[in-house]
From TrEMBL:
Record-linked InterPro entries: Ribosomal_bL19, Ribosomal_bL19_sf, Translation_prot_SH3-like_sf
Keyword set, alphabetical order: Ribonucleoprotein, Ribosomal protein
Coiled coil location: none
Annotated organism of origin: Autumnicola edwardsiae
Family annotation (HAMAP family): Ribosomal_bL19
Protein name: Large ribosomal subunit protein bL19
Zinc as UniProt keyword: no
Keyword presence, Protein biosynthesis: no
GO cellular component annotations of the record: ribosome
Signal peptide interval: none
NCBIfam families on file: rplS_bact
Length: 117
């Protein structure tokens, strides 16, 4: 049964051509919002806290600070509303899921940038 679900997801779910990113990267996600008859593009810029799941069910969590309040948003990777993803900074972290980032504020909440090759 599981292999049948995996087969259907691989064959029929449309894959988007999105850049490769990981935890610690600062990215901007542009997504479409429908308000009645109108649609507009909104963006969400923040640090990737985690990527989880495989295949069509893969999701990623982004965290940003809005004033003094931390805001997190979970996006499915193959969400049809996502228009594009821009990578602003590549972060250097040692973990795949940086939940400790939630407690950090101020200068301690900075992530070192990865050296370019």
């Amino acid at each position: 049964m599981e292999s049948l679900i995996k087969y259907v997801q691989e064959e029929f779910v449309a894959k988007k051509d999105l850049p490769e990113f990981s935890a610690g990267d600062t990215i901007t996600v542009y997504y479409e919002i429908k308000e009645g008859q109108k649609t507009r593009t909104q963006f969400f810029r923040g640090v990737v806290i985690q990527k989880r799941g495989t295949g069509a069910s893969q999701t990623f969590t982004i965290r940003k600070m809005s004033g003094t309040v931390g805001v997190e948003r979970i996006f499915p990777l193959n969400l049809p509303a996502i228009q594009k993803i821009e990578i602003n900074k590549r972060g250097k972290v040692r973990r795949a899921r940086i939940y400790y980032f939630r407690e950090l504020t101020g200068k301690k909440a900075r992530i070192k940038e990865q050296k370019r090759k």
